[in-house]
Design a protein that fits this description.
The complex is a heterodimer. Chain A is mainly alpha-helical. Chain A contains eight helices and two strands; from the N terminus they run ααααααααββ. Chain A has a two-stranded antiparallel ribbon with strand order 1-2. In chain A, a hairpin with a 5-residue loop joins β1 and β2. Chain A is elongated and about 115 Å long. Chain A starts with a helix and ends with a strand. Helices cover 73% and strands 0% of the residues of chain B. Chain B is mainly alpha-helical. In chain B, α1 packs across α3. The chains are: A mainly alpha, B mainly alpha. Chains A and B meet through α1, α3 and α4 of A and α1, α2, α5, α6 and α8 of B.
């Protein structure tokens, strides 16, 4: 773009009120000294005047708004008829997935069991046909690690049992004829009471 | 959003722009209709309701360009210019002489614009006729500020050269 071309572009911007103020003095100075650019600027001004006077926004036919409303409603109906059905299918699928997921989680232990520790102080006796000591320990560990709240309760229950019936000697529990209370109440170290089977 | 109010306010400007692009009244009406239907469908996407005018012009331009690309792919012949678009641009006037004058200039302007590339049609209609600011034009078209300035200048130059007789 040559020098005059650059100034003519600035003149066009000046006419639109878009010339940066810092460019104004130099542009006006050039305009005053360049006949060709002055002619171009006058042509731009005359064109703008004719456009302002004689080109108005055209009248929009009234029927178009009716047609737009109709087409917009039809477009909405075209998109949405399958939406309720698709929504129902998705909801049903979500429920099925959640049920399967819950079922799977409930059927499996949350954590892997550790092997029974042979050093455990608890020595349990069991009658033939019932759970082996190792299995009992395994189940107990499973329960203790699955739920911390349950852990606390079980700990308290086991502590109570060990206190009353001797350490690890469940045989004496069976022989003692003393029923285990349905809802044992235990005292905690800070003097509070806990009902064992309530969560 | 109250679409009827938006239509009443902005449809003349959008229609004027559609006429400058489409060149035929029917095509311009179809473009206007498509523009508002699309806007009403995706109205929730407009984050600044005060810019709805610029947004409508953007939609109109994009729809026009997409339509033209499809036509080019199909190898369609370009639509012949008729005078119907020029007639639609003529405002009503009581005085017969002023009507004749207006028909002359507006019709001549329409014919000159029809022969310009789309970029200059857009720049002239939005910048010179509708007097939008350069920033709004840049948003509507996706052009840089410098490109807006250049396109308006070149469009003005071509139109002024072609309509010299009307301005004496």
């Amino acid at each position: 773009m040559n020098g005059c071309e650059e100034y003519r572009m600035k003149l066009s911007a000046l006419l639109d009120g878009e010339l940066p103020p810092e460019d104004l003095p130099d542009t006006v100075r050039h305009l005053a000294g360049c006949e060709a650019c002055m002619k171009q600027f006058q042509a731009f001004q005359a064109l703008q005047q004719r456009v302002n006077q004689e080109v108005a926004a055209p009248a929009v036919p009234n029927r178009l708004w009716t047609a737009i409303k109709r087409e917009s409603s039809a477009a909405q109906a075209a998109i949405h008829p399958y939406r309720p059905l698709a929504g129902r299918i998705l909801r049903l699928a979500a429920v099925i997935v959640i049920c399967f997921g819950l079922g799977y989680m409930l059927s499996k232990p949350v954590f892997r069991l550790q092997k029974a520790d042979p050093q455990t102080p608890i020595v349990l006796a069991s009658s033939p046909g019932s759970m082996t000591d190792e299995r009992f320990l395994e189940v107990t560990r499973e329960l203790l690690t699955a739920d911390p709240a349950y852990h606390r309760k079980m700990y308290l229950i086991l502590s109570l049992l060990m206190d009353r019936y001797g350490e690890g000697n469940l045989q004496s529990l069976r022989e003692s004829q003393t029923p285990v209370p349905a809802t044992p109440v235990m005292e905690t170290t800070n003097g509070g009471k806990i009902e064992a089977y309530k969560y | 959003m109250n679409w009827e109010a938006v239509y009443r306010k902005h449809s003349p400007g959008v229609y004027q722009y559609c006429l400058s692009l489409a060149q035929q009244t029917q095509e311009a009406e179809d473009l206007l209709q498509e523009t508002f239907v699309k806007a009403m469908r995706s109205g929730e996407a407009l984050r600044q309701p005060e810019k709805v005018g610029s947004w409508l012009l953007t939609i109109a331009r994009n729809l026009f360009l997409d339509g033209r690309k499809k036509q080019e792919r199909r190898g369609a012949q370009s639509v012949e210019l008729t005078s119907t678009a020029a007639e639609a641009a003529i405002p009503q006037a009581d005085h017969p002489e002023s009507v004749l004058l207006r028909e002359d200039f507006a019709g001549a302007l329409q014919r000159v614009l029809a022969n310009l590339p789309e970029a200059y049609q857009t720049a002239f209609t939005l910048g010179v006729v509708q007097k939008l600011n350069y920033r709004d034009i840049a948003e509507i078209t996706g052009w840089s500020a410098a490109t807006v300035k250049i396109n308006i200048y070149r469009a003005r130059q071509k139109v002024a050269a072609a309509l010299g007789d009307y301005m004496r």
